[in-house]
Amino acid sequence: MEDKRLSRDPSPESPRTTSTASDGRSSTPGHFKPWPGPRVNPSPLRPQILNTRPFRKKTTMKCTLPHPDSSPKIVCMGGGTGLPQLLRGLKKLSRSTHNRIDMAKITAIVTAFDDGGSSGRIIQDYEMLPPGDLRRCLIALADEQSEPLLVRFLEHRFDDKEHDHLAGHSVGNLLLLALTQIHGGDFRKALLSVTKLLSLQSTILFPTLSPATLCARLSDGHIIRGESHIAQRRGHASIASIFLEHRDDAATRAFEPMDGVLEAIDTADLISLGPGSLFTSVLPHFLVDGIVDALNRTSARRVYICNLMTEVGETDNFSVGDHLRHLNRMGVNVDAVIVNNRPLPPPIALAYEEERCRLSYQKTLRRLDHAFNLALHDRSQTNELEKTIAESAQRLSRLTHRMAHPEHNILQVLVREEEDIPEHVAVIQRDLLAEEEIMGDEGRPKTVIRHDPEKLARCLLELDEGVRADPGGNAPPPHPEPHGVHRS
Fold first, then answer.
1. Domain presence at residue 31
2. 227 belongs to a structural domain
3. pLDDT in tens, 294-317
4. Three-state SS string across the chain, please?
């Protein structure tokens, strides 16, 4: 039966009695403000009702946001300046409705063995864990769009003209120190407080809360103690292995993992190792009790993110295979490795080469100066001085050759021809370079190379999509591997 209330041509015999007010509106006796009837589209081509207020149906718009359960649980392990780049990329992708990123399902495990600069002074004076790498990750995860001033505040560093006790310290490091003291030395509570202060959704952990010193055993048998001394050591012997020592002599030999670390690894869908310095930011995680076992039993895909550049004193002339071999020596096997394949722009490559030559020259002079001072105060050391002079002459000769033939020097970590990489490791190559301008040690800006945050995060997520498409873990790499990769 037709509902006349929805008729486009109401009958003139309608019992409704209307009158017209002075402002042109109709009114009905006995009613203050009657409903005037449906508003009709006057177009004969589209005879639909535009407004039927008494018969409006409640509608629900379809949302294109991904379901929270589809977001992968990601654990990111690393430190230095590399890990914050990845965290920034994941944060940026989480703002898009087209990406399955839930920041509440991301856990960052940040290396805790820095002992240089501001962190080193805080360790010595206040006997707390180093805040430097942690501060960088907190800032990377903070919302700089809603709190830009807060992010700049945490990054502010007092210059050398300030009072001696403040010079070189960053506000973020001092904030973590203050919160630790407020909570009676409980670093867990301090970390929770700063997480709430920055309104972070992600979880940030240290591999261990045991105060430790990172040590390196060199190929010539010497031992270097302290993360900041490993790359700046005087000798040129390579790193054979690394280990941890307790800063507290009364402590037990064990290095217990921080609460939540093993659980995060066990329940993860995807685990990234790096980016970060191989010997001082990535491998130290595996010296903590239980972490290697957790990585080997997890069902998550384990991905190593290779550094963009070789590092003086740590990974000189290293290839991708060299990085993977050192992971394997620590007992860690990975399922995939992400490598940049874009060459450095020539001006930046030249600047890096010049800086490395300068560092090598200064390192040789420091070693020579040390030997000279020893012999000056102990004449029995003159033979050692002669030996050092001869070795220094050889190193300076090699440095001269390096300066004359920069094209032969290995700056980037790239997949080389006939690279020996295990059969089960997928090699993912992408253009991951980004140029950033930072303030150099001399107070002048300089351009450095970093991982592009968004490109790196997208590449990592592609691997997760492959795992979900093939739960057996046999998903092929997103793109074909390069020619010249030799499978062992």
1. no
2. no
3. 999 999 999 999 999 998 888 988
4. CCCHHHCCCCCCCCCCCCEECCCCCEECCCCCCCCCCCEECCCCCCCCEEECHHHCCCCCCCCCCCCHHHCCCEEEEECCCHHHHHHHHHHHHHCCCCCCCCHHHEEEEECCCCCCHHHHHHHHHHCCCCCHHHHHHHHHHCCCCCCHHHHHHHHCECCCCCCCCCCCCEHHHHHHHHHHHHCCCCHHHHHHHHHHHCCCCCEEECCECCCEEEEEEECCCCEEECHHHHCCCCCCCCEEEEEEEECCCCCCCCCCECCCHHHHHHCCCEEEECCCCHHHHHHHHHHCCCHHHHHHHCCCEEEEECCCECCCCCCCCCCHHHHHHHHHHCCCCCCEEEEECCCCCHHHHHHHHHHHHHHHHHHHHHHHHHHHHHHHHCHHHHHHHHHHHHHHHHHHHHHHHHHHCHHHCCCECCCCCCEEECCCCEEEEECCEEEEEEECCCCCEEEEEEECHHHHHHHHHHHHHHHHHCCCCCCCCCCCCCCCEEEC
| 288 occurs within a structural domain | yes
CATH of the domain at 457: 3.40.50
Looking at the structure, do residues 301 and 376 belong to the same domain, yes or no?
Answer: no
Domain count of the fold of the chain = 2
Of 244, 245, 209, 196, the closest CA to residue 130 belongs to 209
What is the pTM (predicted TM-score) of this model?
Answer: 0.77
Please indicate, yes or no, whether residues 328 and 259 belong to a single structural domain of this protein: yes
Do 418 and 311 fall into the same domain? yes
Q: Which of 261, 245, 269, 345 is nearest to 100 (CA)?
A: 269
CB 233 within 8 Å of CB 313? yes
- pLDDT tens-place string over residues 177-236: 899 999 998 999 999 999 998 889 999 999 999 989 999 999 989 999 998 888 777 666
Host domain of residue 480: 68-112+206-212+255-343+412-487
Measure the CA–CA gap between 406 and 350, rounded to whole angstroms. 8
Res 355 pLDDT > 80? yes
- CA pair distance 297, 283, nearest whole angstrom: 18
